Amino acid sequence: MSSSSINLTDQVYEYYLSVTLREDEVMRRCREETARHEWAGMQISPEQGQFMTMLVKLLDARKIIELGVFTGYSSLCMARAMPADGKLIACDVKKEYTDKATEYWKAAGVADRVELRLAPALDTLADLLREGEAGSFDFIFVDAIKEEYSDYYPLNYRLLRRGGLMAVDNVLWGGSVANPDNQKAETNAIRAFNKMVHEDDRVDMCMLPVGDGLSLIRKR
Ligand code: CA
Q1: In whole angstroms, what is the distance from residue 16 CA to residue 6 CA?
Q2: What are phi and psi of 206, to 5 degrees?
Q3: Nearest one of 107, 81, 73 to 90, comparing CA atoms
Q4: What is the CA radius of gyration of the chain?
Q5: In angstroms, what is the span from residue 1 Cα to ligand 1's centroid?
Q6: What is the Å distance from ligand 1's center to 127 Cα?
Q7: For a Cys-Cys bond, which of 90, 111, 177, 204 suits 218, CB 3.0-4.6 Å?
């Protein structure tokens, strides 16, 4: 028995999904169609999606921001967990991806809860602050440009309400952050981000080794 997280062999992972996964038909179609995409690795895993569904329900989140939409699996997981009057601001720069996401949102009946903003994430976050939205968001999911993680952070912090939560994806970056020989720009950016969050006493934080590493950061 190890004190670290269990190693998910293929056999354990199959079992794990078999006793947990609750996807509806639209979500399964989104995930399976996206798995054939050339950038399929950008899609979150289904268990991470279901975890985010749970977070949205636990927070009773009605206002959410997503930075990095891709083809919409994560936004589906969050939007369907919100009440009908909930609002998810979905931020991405690639219309080619978000056109697919929009199809799935419509098919799932949650399109009216999603407000797509096709612009660089930093611009949209600054716009939201200018629009008077500081302190109003319950949940922010960050999965956009890794070199910008540390720049999103102070804006996201201002946009969150007290007790609101940021969930930040890819914080273990395929394990490369633990390899000092890896000095790539994205790897160093994630290292700097992780260190900054760890040292920020304005927030509660933890990091889960789910997917590619997911940090949960709660505004005190
Ligand atoms: Ca990701």
Answers
A1: 12
A2: -150, 160
A3: 73
A4: 17
A5: 30
A6: 24
A7: 204
